[in-house]
Amino acid sequence: MQETKPVNPWLTIWVKPRTTIRYILNHKFLGFAFLLTILAGIGNTLDQASSEDVLDYLDIGLPLLLLGGVILGAISGIIGWFLTTLVAWGVGKIFKGKATYKELLIATAWANIPLIIALFIWVPDLMVMGEGAFQSDYVVSSTFGVIYLSLSFLIQLILLGWYFFILIKAVSETHRFSSWHGLCTLLIPGGFLAVLVLLLLLLTMFL
After folding, report:
1. pTM, whole model, 2 decimals?
2. Are 115 and 81 in contact (CB under 8 A)?
3. Which of 12, 65, 174, 178 is the most exposed place for a label (fewest CB within 10 A)?
4. End-to-end distance of the chain based on CA atoms, in angstroms?
5. Can you tell me the distance from the alpha carbon of 134 to that of 122, in angstroms, rounded to the nearest whole number?
6. Integer Cα distance of 114 and 109 in angstroms
7. Quick one: DSSP state of residue 140?
8. Tally: H helices and E strands in the chain
9. How distant is the alpha carbon of residue 65 from its chain centre?
């Protein structure tokens, strides 16, 4: 086991992701990774519900929607975590990666920190928009609202980009290969899935 200096992962992972991931792999356990994944899954579920304007066709009210988002987010987050990590572990072996599946589970869970920060932005978002966050006909009625929502969108976009940056570094450090190999490890499954979806769309057009 490679010794690493003590760090605060919540702070250092933003600027020193590889060093932080190595420290995490040496000192952290799988249990806390489940909580990180659940929180990220809840945030992703709320984002998806907002982008699809679910309250346009679901008459359930905001409290029930949020409760469903927590439950579905936790479940989908865990399932997605296991599956995507399995793919990253398998594809990484093509580039002679050395990570174990458990190590990669821990690393990818901690890469979720930017997504968890984005989840907490939902608190002021809901204070400003309420149910409108999940409706297509929501209209911003004040200058403050326009400024706030624009800033919120920009921050979440930055956090999403930072998440992918940290994820690439996390996969690379865990597999013990270059960041370029880490990028390819994540892009190859995505490219394969995109081609598969395209083929299915073409088949539906001609059948």
Report:
1. 0.88
2. no
3. 178
4. 56
5. 12
6. 11
7. -
8. 9, 0
9. 20
